[in-house]
């Protein structure tokens, strides 16, 4: 990625150089307080005294002005801190919006302060005078984030923050911008010049590093930026880097290693041995000298690395890492996070100053010699936002706490820190106990984030006996007491006015009360509706506490008294009276009321300006009412009067102070109740800047407000103004950072001579209300409280260090629980003891009873104490048995349901699984368990809803509101009377006029030739310019290629985004399931066929075995081969016969059952079946033994045969040979049959394995489709709704199209009729003009008669017969218009009497004119009717067109919605994971052939597609090379053409100058040559004179007439 910016020099006059001794006035530049009119507060109301804080988390917030002066940013101030004397000097920001960055020039003579705000500036100050030397304007919209001088100090680089991130290079001595460009699209941390090459720069920031180079070209300076590429290295935020002499850069990383950049890539990543990181956490290089690199880390170490040891051959090629150990290291301190390091400007100095992000400034000796000093912590501050601040009521002491787990006490008279104490958790609030609680005023109450409240006693150790000799400390904090009332951070602490009760609030929504004394005794707690924001006791002699919750609730609770006692089980106080208030937003109502008043005032103002009342103007809609959700949080508040209080809200409701009171109705639900403020005060310029804290002066005439923008406001108030009516004017000063320096705390000192502020930016400021000269009169240091008597003998209070320790409530509940458990155990043990004693006594009674003589012994009935005891026991046993049966009834019913399910499952499982086993091996093959295909789910079915409008014809378009007239052709066939024509006067033309015309014709012909020549010349030039390609000319071939490529991209996108249809997915799912089942059925049929083959083979082998036995019976025993053992058909091969018992088995089953019933044994079907199976196995074994015995008996019988004759022996030998052959053949056939069967089974096993592989893939596909259907189910309702909308739009479009066609036809017809009527009217007017002749003396009279409007009875009847109101209205409008025209014409002249013919006028002509007028009136009536109809049709057509546009727009919206839904479907489907099985030879990842452990992030590509892509890449590289060569040729050609164009332009300018010179010589001025060719006017001067005389005569006559009229009207 590369960015190029060229800054061209301006064409104007060069800017005058600024003198080197020019300075600005600091008092004119610095920001000042904003004082509104009427505040009467002086500008110097507050004088800055000291800064106790340090914004340690700000990047690069430490610079060294000289060897003893540190500078850093503190909100709107730049602090200059003297290291030796610890004195501070301040420079205020000039914009009032804060300071963004600061940099010191290498020479040390100047330093730049880059500010924040709207269009901030950079002010360069001169040292040591601290006068503003230069002001650089522009370069940022909102803020600057970094500035840096180059090595010689001639240029300055600045970085703008959000939103523009602009990099600007300044010639700061002349206040000029040299180069400006966008640095990056995200936050940029720093940008610096290279100390070795002034033309090279580097910038880094969030997830990037960029390398810049400045070069000079013929168009100006050029800045090129190259983005660094991380490649295999994870992307990291780069906060620090160092430029090397060879233009390389070494940067840090977030994981602690160093990155060496060469060019734009990482050359090597430096780590320690065994892969350890260089630092634990973020690392920042800060110095490189003589090959030695120094780095600082977040682990608190400074390490030195020798980069010359980096050997390229030792770099690991896989990870690009190089292992390097530091040659020196220094541990600055534990819990130290180094973020910035600067060096002393003294030559050959090894002193550095480091910024600790954990709130410290360190002085370091980095010489690494034996004599080097240890790191020295110069200053220590709070880290992060200041959570608590309060001042002493007796002295000028201030205490603060923050989340850095420290509590600090400051003396703001001597401007020093007295004491600091560390704890295990961060502090969240702090309060200084009043004098009524602690007389010496040295007790602090601090709340912490683990819910612990600690009481810290501040005293001066020197007041103890012998303490002065033992400790040099000026103050000491001693833990007096600690307890944990809350389980969440403590947010507020407040003492009652009399100091007898302490209240603590927490974010867990509880308020705990304690009775104050030597020891704080817990009273109890209450629960409030939200996290506690603040607590305030009523100042109106009421024992009430106001609890402000962040959730918008306010609770007023009565203070618990000494008699209030909590329960023994809990501290919860449920009986305390309380009132609730829940804030309801009224800001939008206030703004609406303001808008109404503004509009009423504007309306009233407009009415006053108008002389007469006109129609009311249409008003704009009022702004809507808005109630924020969630509610706006409460920032702060205070009591105004009993039951009334003021609130400052954040969020939407900021900008006002709201006066509220508790409602009388307290029975409403806390969640549902809404209480509105009854009054409010507008605070100017606080729409997005709410009041975060408020405090009053002792006389309540000054109100200090801490704003969210970090500014402090002072409002003067009138005495006793509880309603804040005098809160109008204010005094405002920006103090803390305007972006993140929310002013949490603002306090007056006890004598109200100081104001203390603390903000979220970590800064603490003290302001004096006295001028500096009067401040010197005060004591030099504050008084520290003296130690109590006996404090040295008191034991140290136990602290609560475990964050998981029990709170008071949890401890009490646990104690109560333990107590109850202990009591129950004691009671149980006592009962057991008593029971054991009774048992012992009873046994002793029984023994004694047995020892008595028999006649004296007691019977068991007599020994029974209660005769009904056994009966009750039996009843109890029966009851318990019933309960057991009742408990087991569910299990019984569950078992029955399970049985039914198993039966149903057996039905659904289909046929049994058949397993065919090989005869001589362990191979086996089983059929598939076929299940009935489930019916498609209801949500999958895509039933097409019948569209009732599909088969219906489109409705007829509605008829027009006006029907066409039927008598349009009534006058078409009328015979027009022939008018008597007047004889035209003859005009004679003179000879002189003929000669003039001939001359004019000759001149015109000559001028025409000249004009034609000029036109030809223009045409030639036009052709020449037409041949010139335009500036934006594009090659048609390239344009066509681009269009084709775009089309291909669109096609590819369309292919990548196919339309997803659930119907197709459902069909695909069903077809795939059918296909799976068909394949399974096919394989099952083959397995069943093989099973049948095995059954047939068994029968064949059995027959052959019998034949073999017959053969062997005829053979001698020595020739008999062993009989092959026949296999058996296993039960799993014929599972269908498992439930088909033989009659003998059934008979035997009943015999066994009857036998068991007769012997009263358990009738268990399972045991009977087991016994039956064992008997069957025993019978089979007996049959085998019988066969063996029969075979052995046959052998023995044959051995006992008698001897035979030779012939019999020969015959027997021949028979033996035949039998041996037959025996051999039978054995071979049996063996081959078995082998063939086993071979067939193995082949079938292989086929089934392949089919299993295919079926698994298909099942995975089914699972994927099913998951896709589950995803598509979410869009079903939206799809159906959009389909309905689309069908409705299509139907409506068809209907509107049909209506438009009909309207267009009707409108065209009416337009033709209107045209015909207008033509007839024009013909009638032409006939009238022809009847008058040329010089008719009564032309004016006859024209008035012809144009006179006559009211006709026929017209009124036609108007009454008209069918529609609109036609009547239009006719009346035309009538009124015509009558008004007639009235105007009557006013302009005398009335016309058409009944009397003037003298000299022919009566026939008058009669003819009257006939023409009647015909004209008829035509006008017809024309008006047609126009009305046409107007109505036009309106219908326009309404239909509008409706058609709306329908088309709706259809486009529906199409877009369908497309967006389809896109959502694709995104959902693309998120599904799909399993793809691969062979090992398909994995082509590592060249060494090793298989990675995780393949989830790999890409599966077709091999052919991969090969095609590789070829395409090679082709594209070749084309890129060709295109670059062609581009070079085009650039050369462009340069040549530009040079020729420049030469031709010079030639044209030269010819233009010659032409102008000739025109000046010829005409004396520049003239238009084309205008010379235009022929002049042909009329002679005499004609113009004649016309002039005639005009003067006519005008004189008219002038005399007007004079007569004027004289007649004069009194």
Task: From the structure above, extract its key features.
38% helix; alpha+beta; five-stranded antiparallel sheet; single chain; 1611 residues
Give structural notes.
By secondary structure, the chain is α+β, with helices and mostly antiparallel strands. Helix content is 38%, strand content 22%. It has 21 helices and 61 strands. The strands form 15 sheets. A 5-stranded antiparallel beta sheet has the order 1-19-18-17-16, with no helix packed on it. A 5-stranded antiparallel beta sheet has the order 2-56-55-54-53, with no helix packed on it. The protein has a 5-stranded mixed beta sheet with strand order 20-21-22-23-27, with no helix packed on it. Strand 29 and strand 30 form a beta hairpin. Helix 15 packs across helix 18. The longest helix has 68 residues. The radius of gyration is 55 Å and the shape is extended. About 7% of the residues have low confidence.
Largest sheet: 5 strands, antiparallel
Number of helices: 21
| Unreliably modeled segments | 6-12, 936-991, 1194-1201, 1354-1368, 1370-1390
Average pLDDT confidence is 82
Shape label: extended
Structural class computed from helices and strand pairing: alpha+beta
Report the span from N to C terminus: 93 Å
